[in-house]
Write a structure and sequence with these properties.
heterodimer, A: alpha/beta, B: alpha/beta, about 30% strand
């Protein structure tokens, strides 16, 4: 079997259930939650591990930053047999009631990026799979974790829309703040769009590590690692729930 | 909002909080008189017919929206102004999927924003997404009723005579891009209703009955379609009951 052009994986090497962080550096942390994790491939920004979780074969593959590389990862994972995929990442909150460390489960995303528009006209909605959304909500509830559920925004230019951007960034984001968009990140809208087109189930779970209104931000890696452990647990439980139907 | 709303002619708390939104005036009359207990007609103005009534143990309402996003936006805005919180569009659509036949039921998760009204509210990249709680409530009730359904994205648009079996020229070519994308069906109101729901923080969903198939050309018989529409109304009214009781979990 031919290896995928970018991911350097082949069908049979990954599970149907895949966790997708942005950062390749986090893949090994996530794989620590698997039983018997095996490093499958390491190529460009794409790192893949496969292992077991309570009897399920699960994988983790990083997407790199942004929709261009995330779309490649998703396409090649689908071609390799993935059916249930959850992006796991960080996000900048756009609403006052979202505190740093809060979990966000998006139902859908504003398509303020270039990739998904190459797939389908802009009026098509970028929607997370409802079964994945339900399973993530259920997993968070069972752990008594507060989560915000709603619309997020995905965009391409970090230095135009983040707490590190020029001082006018809030002016550009005001339309989304006023439209009850919960937070900003860089991959979900293309992942949701492609997921629907390819008929696989795609969702996202995020943790707020910045708030654009208060300008607070968590940069300390020691504080961020536990956030990823917690989201990985939720994600794996959600997979387990979905398998049960 | 003590004042009387400009088009729907009623004020705060005069309409029950959970509302079915058919397009057709006659369907609003049908739901109000045949499905609700102790129903009372409150308004009859333009394309807006509104009834209050009871369903199971809860107060519910129905308001027709007329055809298209322009009048549907007016209806949901004014109903929200006077305190309504839960909305389910019950309507018909044209199937774009060879697997969805006339009489089949669709529970909508999101809509392509091919309409004009929602663009006045928020830029086009914003998603028209059904409220997840409404989707879950509809799925739960469909399961309870033993009714099969398709679940997914539909297309909302404005020009019936550009995309329908009655349209001019090669309508199949115009809708091909959506059919290939796995868009289940075409109708005329959901996208704006969903966008306004997200903006105004009210819960909106939709359940549709396919009355024809644009790809295969199949059409349903009047009797069969009516049976499906009755099922969709039963599912939607039941979902409004569950939403008011906060039953959000999937069964």
């Amino acid at each position: 079997m031919k290896k995928m052009h970018h991911l350097q994986i082949e069908p049979g090497q990954i599970g149907e259930f895949v966790i997708m962080p942005g950062d390749p550096g986090r893949c090994h942390l996530i794989a620590e939650h698997f039983e018997n994790p095996q490093l499958i491939a390491q190529s460009r920004e794409y790192v893949t591990y496969t292992g077991k979780y309570k009897g399920l074969t699960v994988s983790v593959t990083s997407t790199g930053m942004g929709c261009p590389s995330a779309a490649i990862a998703l396409e090649e994972l689908i071609m390799s047999g993935a059916k249930y995929l959850v992006r796991l990442g960080t996000t900048g909150a756009l609403q006052k009631n979202i505190n740093l460390g809060d979990i966000i489960i998006p139902t859908s995303a504003v398509r303020l990026e270039g990739t998904s528009v190459e797939y389908i006209p802009i009026e098509f909605p970028a929607i997370a799979d409802i079964d994945i959304v339900d399973a993530l909500i259920k997993a968070a509830r069972e752990k008594n974790l507060k989560s915000h559920i709603g619309i997020i925004m995905s965009h391409d230019a970090f230095y135009k829309g983040s707490v590190f951007a020029d001082p006018d960034f809030l002016k550009r984001e005001q339309v989304w703040i006023d439209s009850n968009v919960l937070s900003v990140e860089n991959e979900s809208s293309a992942l949701f769009t492609i997921g629907y087109l390819r008929k696989v189930k795609v969702g996202t779970i995020l943790t707020a590590v910045a708030n654009h209104l208060t300008r607070e931000v968590i940069t300390d890696e020691e504080k961020i690692n536990p956030i990823f452990y917690r989201m990985t647990d939720l994600c794996l439980e959600a997979f387990k729930n979905m398998e049960k139907g | 909002m003590e004042q009387v709303q400009y088009h729907i002619r009623c004020k705060k708390d005069e309409v029950n909080k959970a509302v079915l939104l058919p397009g057709d005036i006659e369907r609003a009359d049908y739901i109000g008189t045949q499905f609700f207990r102790d129903s009372k007609k409150i308004v009859e103005n333009r394309e807006f017919h509104i009834y209050n009534g009871g369903y199971e143990n809860k107060p519910v309402a129905v308001c027709s929206t007329g055809i298209g996003c322009m009048s549907a936006a007016v209806a949901i805005e004014e109903l929200t102004n006077i305190g309504c919180k839960y909305f389910i569009r019950v309507g018909t659509c044209g199937s774009l999927s060879p697997e969805i036949n006339p009489g089949d039921i669709i529970i909508v998760t999101g809509a392509v924003r091919g309409d004009g009204a929602s663009k006045e509210y928020v830029p086009i990249e914003y998603p028209a997404v059904a409220d997840y709680r409404v989707v879950t409530a509809l799925r739960n009730r469909a399961k309870k009723e033993g009714v099969d359904y398709s679940l997914g994205i539909i297309r909302t648009h404005d020009a019936f005579y550009m995309e329908s079996p009655f349209a001019f020229g090669d309508y199949k070519k115009r809708v091909a891009i959506w059919a290939e994308a796995g868009v289940l069906a075409i109708e005329n109101e959901s996208s704006t209703l969903f966008v306004i729901g997200s903006l105004r923080k009210v819960q909106v969903g939709a359940i549709l009955v396919a009355v024809g198939n644009l790809i295969t050309g199949k059409k349903g018989t009047k009797d069969d379609l009516q049976k499906s529409i009755d099922k969709a109304i039963t599912i939607a009214a039941g979902a409004l009951v569950d939403l008011q009781e906060g039953k959000e979990k999937k069964i």
